[in-house]
Structure formats: C-alpha cells, structure tokens
Design goal:
39% of the residues lie in helices and 18% in strands. It is built from 15 helices and 13 strands. The strands form two sheets. A seven-stranded parallel sheet has the order 9-8-7-10-11-12-13, sandwiched between helices. It has a six-stranded parallel sheet with strand order 2-1-3-4-5-6, with helices on both faces. The relative contact order is 0.12. By secondary structure, it is of the alpha/beta class. The chain is globular and about 60 Å long. It has two domains: 159 residues, NAD(P)-binding Rossmann-like Domain (Rossmann fold, 3-Layer(aba) Sandwich), CATH 3.40.50.720; 231 residues, NAD(P)-binding Rossmann-like Domain (Rossmann fold, 3-Layer(aba) Sandwich). α7 runs parallel beside α8, α7 packs across α15 and α9 packs parallel to α10. Bound molecules: nicotinamide-adenine-dinucleotide (NAD).
Amino acid sequence: MTDRYQSLAHNPIGKFVVKNLGLPNPPDLERWVEGSPFVKGTVLIGAAPTSTLGKKLNTTLKASGITTVGVRADSKRYKGLVFDATGIADTAGLALMQQFFTPALRSLASNGRLVVIGTLPEQATSETAAIAQRALEGFVRSAGKEVGGNGSTSNLVYVGAGSEDALGSTLEFLLSPKSAFVSGQVIRLGLTELVAPDAVADPAKPLAGKVALITGASRGLGAAMARTLHRDGASIIGLDVPGLSSELDAVMAELGGTSIAEDITADDAPKVIAKAVKAAHGGVDIVVHNAGITRDKRLKNMKTENWNLVIDISVGAPQRITAELLKQKLINTGGRVIGISSIAGIAGNNGQTSYGTAKAGVIGFVQDLSKRVAKDGITVNAIAPGFIETDMVKTMPLGIREAGRRLSSLSQGGLPIDVAEAIAWYANPGSSAISGNVVRVCGQALIGA
Ligand code: NAD
C-alpha cells in the first residue's frame, strides 16, 4: 500500500512544512535492479592494524565486482564504509574504529552502507577482547540511528573461527540496495558446524538448479519471496490454503512453478507436502515457512481456539512439516530452512500475546534445529520483519499504522521485496556459514532488540 505521508513530504509545500515543523522526513530508499552491480560506487575499507582479515576482505569484495579503496580522498563520495575490527583486543582499541568513521562519514553518499566486521565475542582469546568485540554492537546500532536520515544503514558481521572465507554473500547483501531496509543488525557467521560455501556458477542466477518451497505464497511477502527466488534461478513450489488456490495458481503460472493447495495445520499436511515435493522435483533445497496469521486480542479477551491457531500456523506446523521432510530425506545437502518471525516475537507487542509467543517460538525453532542439522549441511535461520507494506497492515488503525511506519531509523515501512531479498541472501549457496541467526528487516524500528 502507498505511504501518503512520504509522498506529501516530498512535494515542494510538504518539504517546507516538514522542515519547519521538524517532522520525520522519510528518505527515498534505493532498491536493487536486476542486472545492476551490487554496489554503484566505491567502498572505502579500513582496519585495525592487528585485524585478521587483511587482504581476504579486498579479495572477497573484488570477487563480487565491488570497487574498493584503502585511502580516503576528501573530494570523493563513498557508497560503503567497511571497517575490519577483528583485531581490536581491548576497549582502548575501539578508538581506531571512531578514527576511521568520523572523517569518512562526511564522505558517505546517500543510501550508503556502514559495515563493521568483528570476531564472535564468545570465541575471543582474552576477556578484554571479548568485551571490546561485544561493544561493536552498540556502535553499529547507534551509528544506524545517525545515518538513517539519508537512507543509509549500519550493520555488524561477527566472523566465527573458520568462516573467514564465507563472507562474500553477506557483504554483497549488506553493501547493496538489496538490504535497503536492514539496519542495526548483527549477523553471526560460524555459530554451527561449518560447511564450506558452495561456489556460485552464475552470479546473476545464484539459485540455478535449486528448488524452493514457500508456504503462504499466493500473496504478500510469500508471493514476493517466490518471485525473488525465481529471479535468482530457483524452481518454485508454492503452497497456500485451498480457499486461495486460484490466486496461488496465478502466481505459480507466472513463475512456471508448482502449486500445493493445502492447509498446513491439517493432520495429513506433512505427508501431502512431502509427496508433492517428491513428485515435482525429487526433493527441495530451500523451505520458507512464511504462512502466518494474526488473531490479535488482549490476553484477558483471548479465545483458546484463536490462540492455538496462531501458534500452530506459525510454529507448530512448520516443525511437523520440516520433521517429515527431514525424515524422508527430502531436504537436499546444502539445504536452507527459513522461518518467519516478527519484531513482535523479539520485543513483544500490546494486544499480540498469541502472535508474540508464536513468533518467539519461530526463533526457538531455528536456534534448536540449526544445531541438529548442521552435520547434514543444512542451515536454519529466521527473518523477523518489522512494519512491511502488505494487506496485513491495511487493517491497522491509522494511528498505530503511522507510528509503525515512522518510529524507525528510516521513518517508513519496508516493502515485501526487502524481506524477499533477505530470504534470497540466506538461500544463497555462499551463505553456508550463516545458521541459527535471526535478522530483523525492520528499518531499525524502535520496537525490537
Ligand atoms: P498475508 O496475510 O498477506 O499472507 C500470509 C499467507 O499465509 C496468506 O496467503 C495465507 O493464506 C497463508 N496462510 C495462512 N494460514 C495458512 C494455513 N493454515 N495454511 C497455509 N497457508 C496459510 O501476510 P504477510 O504480510 O504476507 O505475512 C507473511 C508472513 O510474514 C507471516 O508469517 C507474518 O506473520 C509475517 N510478518 C509480516 C509482517 C508485515 O508487516 N506484513 C511483519 C512481521 C511478520
């Protein structure tokens, strides 16, 4: 749906009113256009002298076709600022990061990207290093709030031991317009047993040869995920309730995909889905448990049947379906299981105890399963969307809708494509070191961690 305030704020009279009354001024966010490079511009790289990534960082970015420089020129604008903080071993060393970013921020282009790279604090070799590395989180989150006004974002990547060669897909995502609505996030590589990243044969079609199953694919975020994974080369199997089968068939016809009309909470759903996946492609590489509903009521007015429905659709059914697919060995090696949580599952939300419980359950599901299937080369992660412009938000009262849009570093709602791009990044064969993560796609909303 359209954001009328944002359109008004950008016309000449609106601009004047917004400026003089100090109202939120949502920046225009750039989105990635198929065929474009990951970064339209240059990325400035800095590092603490003792940092460990060294040349690897440059080589990784060059392999993705990203232009880098190591020395800042006053006259230049930079689309990305990347700082390798892996070598910072005490809090005094954090000043190295400030000394890099303070002058460089004056040269940051609009829709620019700040990325800090650290080491997992729990793997630090000393107490002082663990503290300094943990401090990086506060830096990126605060910096995100400072740079959001011009559409820029700020994120942190912790590189676990052994996952230094698996940074490529994450840097492509974070530095490109694909991550337009991702800010203030912490991504952890190497939390589970490591599997070497698969090479991507064709960068324009990183998911060529892969099969993706997406539930709730007839509309909203699910339809955007289906289109985006298909854009990246995957064959699509879309699922939705029988009542939406004609809408689902229309999306699948557009993508040459396969439809499954099934209610995921039905007793036979796991077996029906497994059978359909086997018949269509013999197995599946990417499973996105996107189907979800809200039945919002204050706890004192909650009906048990609605409580059960919300929990079962978001987390009970995904558990049973994944278990059946794993039991029948239908999730291929290098597989990706992706849950859809919500910022309400992280921070809680007034009137959403059932939804908040269900979406926190999704986090439990991915954190637990990620450890159990790592040995099979399968990663399990979740995306927690914030306020995204879909049919779901049309039903919100105007005041709550406006608060949801404006109370973030980017002062606007996200688009379905923003969530879909994050799914495509998890699904990328190069993202094998990312498992057990929960990343918010929320424009750094004030709600959430
Ligand atoms: P939506 O209502 O447009 O789409 C959800 C889809 O799930 C629908 O097609 C619906 O038919 C399907 N579905 C529901 N119950 C099902 C069942 N029992 N079996 C099979 N399919 C079923 O909503 P959306 O905004 O696209 O949301 C997609 C996901 O993202 C949901 O899990 C939602 O909770 C989550 N989410 C959305 C937002 C947002 O701002 N839109 C924010 C946070 C999280």
